[in-house]
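Q: I have 174 residues here and want to know how they pack in 3D. Can you give me a structure?
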Amino acid sequence: MTTGHAEVVSTVVSLYSSQTIAVDLGIASTAMVLYDTILSLHREVQYVWRERRKWHQRVLYVLTRHMFTILLLLEEQTINPISDQNCQILVWSSSLAGFSSILGPTIFTIWRAYALSGKNKVVGGAMSLAGIVMIFYNAIVFLVITPINLPPPENCTSSSRLDASYNTPCLCRS
């Protein structure tokens, strides 16, 4: 084997190893989140769904608690090869769940900062502006995602045109 072939084989083995480690970590993370969800389900039913709460509190709870779980479950579907159409649906669904999982904590943080500041409108306005900027940025990132259905072990993945490493020419000096 020549040196060039050895480097290619080494790179392929390294990429495959990193992909299998990522898949294993993804499965472990999903299992832990589902285990936690199952363990705390009775408390959730008791404190969130049976007590009188306003609809926006329940929506905030679902966005904060369950959208990340849905995101993990959607991302686990990319372990096995799937069709291009299913890949596109999966990437968009996963992106929407990821965007929604950011929305809940952002709203909660804005409300909390406003309440802890003694309902100071300047603090509330500044936090709202920061939250709106973050939500707007994530919406833009969501809109420029391109589904890519690669051969195993990568399978269905996505790329963003905002990613600095995506087709960016090197502007560095040798």
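Q: Anything worth noting?
A: The two ends are 30 Å apart (CA to CA). Helices lie at 3-39, 41-49, 55-65, 67-76, 84-116, 121-143.
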